[in-house]
Amino acid sequence: MAAVRYFFSLLLILFCFALPTPCFATTRKLSALVEQQPLLLKYHNGPLLKGNITVNLVWYGKFSSAQRSIIVDFLNSLSSGKKASPPSISSWWQTTGKYRGGLSTVLVGKQILDNNYSLGKALKTSQITALATKPGYGNSGNVVNVVLTSADVTVDGFCMSRCGTHGSGRVKKSRLAYAWAGNSVTQCPGYCAWPFHQPMYGPQTPPLVAPNGDVGVDGMVINLATVMAGTVTNPFNNGYFQGPAEAPLEAVSACTGIFGKGAYPGYPGEVLKDKTTGASYNAVGVNGRKYLLPAMWDPETSTCKTLA
């Protein structure tokens, strides 16, 4: 859920279900290099999430319908059968199909609204995992429950060491996956919503215009994209990653800070710009919606692959 004005580098072990297994946190730190050579994510012989995957959502706190639609449209775009204008979100997601086992097809399932902050506005990591169990898991292991927290909710480690997380746990005899991402707009937009906000540290390049006009939610999409790619390629801490298992670099977190060609610390790289709004993007999804997505490690070329 490293460093390069953003290199989501260290993904910390932060939380687990009743019967814990290793978990991962996506961090966005503001130093180091955008590209490191050599870059090789080793396969550790564990199962990946492949085939049809149902993604259930828990909206915790206040989200407008417009904000929810931004995220749902992104998820629906990952495996959309409808042909989107290039560069498409589905083509970005297809890189996960180059990992062992083929492509993962994402289907949005249940959506649970917790507008009344049932666990309060300051959440511990154990409470995130509790929220992740709310939609249930059915009889299939190919389910990912995603918790999304609103801008007025604090979470252990949020804005300090992570912007999102993914991990796994057990329900009865099944190993199950979950993820979390938070809206950072009032807490740390320079940390978790860059490049749509001035960075907290490092080169102070001008921020890009958010493609959906919402700095916090457009930043959430970047972090959600990161943890979703990590979830399907390293769901149980024995899939694809580089470095120690307790602090792995994964499919996208190994490439953090790279959004286009020529990226370097403080500069996201060459991306597209909407002629009408001036917003920056590199991917198009359903309903013509535009997004900015991070680079993903391509196992065929052992490089960070960008859309733009």
List keywords for this structure.
single chain, 5 helices, globular, 308 residues, alpha/beta, two-stranded antiparallel ribbon
Q: What can be said about the biggest beta sheet?
A: 6 strands, mixed
| Percentage of β-strand residues | 15-25%
**Average residue-wise pLDDT:** 87
The strand count comes to 16
C-alpha-based Rg, rounded: 17 Å
Distance from N terminus to C terminus (CA atoms, Å) equals 24 Å
- What is the helix content? 10-25%
* Strand-pairing-aware structural class: alpha/beta
Task: State the assembly state of the protein chains.
Answer: single chain
Main-sheet strand order equals 1-8-9-6-3-4
Helix and strand sequence: EEEHHEEHEEEEHHEEEEEEE
Shape: globular
What does this structure look like?
This protein is of the alpha/beta class and 308 residues long. It is built from 5 helices and 16 strands. It has a 6-stranded mixed β-sheet. It has a two-stranded antiparallel ribbon with strand order 2-10. Strands 5-7 form a two-stranded parallel sheet. Helix 1 runs parallel beside helix 5. Residues 1-36 have low confidence and may be disordered.
